[in-house]
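Predict structure. Chain length: 192.
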Amino acid sequence: MRIIAGARRGMKLLIPDTQETRPITDRVKESLFMVLQNYDLLAGARVADLFCGVGSLGLEALSRGAVSATFVEQSPEIADVLEKNIAKAAFESQSRVVRTNAFRVGAPLGPRGERYDLVFVDPPYAVTQEVGPGSELDKLLHILENQVVPRGVVIVRTQRAKQPLDVYGAFHAVDRRDWGSMSVVLLQATGS
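Prediction complete.
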């Protein structure tokens, strides 16, 4: 696994010796980031990477021009590797690591209450077996309503067989992509 493009192009990411993570392949990550660039969502963006693992998506966003990234990871062992990847990429000044369960806090606002332009939601597949009303994903998206800027985008990755809904509160689907066994939906917040 590596950073594919931008300022840290080609940098290999450290990965933990655990089965807890399910990293996104470079091919799928490249396809996802091409979609994000087509929507002009990266340059100058404030990004949150929830259930981030070793930080592959957030670090890729920083490499491609995002101004900051908040990484949310519950596992202490994986968060330790994440912090090493941030240091290796020299993105410490642009990064913040929050060690907690993202389902409880969403994307914690920045030090001055800054909201996010772009949020990656990549939870373990086991907890996205239900994606409808009242599901963990639904509850998380309701938390994110107050953490994302108007017209901000949340990217949700699930198993292909478990397609997220078209609408979650203030978010509505603007694009869907399937790659292999996974599905990715871009949900945009309402706003002016």
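Summary: Residues 53 and 113 are 24 Å apart (CA to CA).
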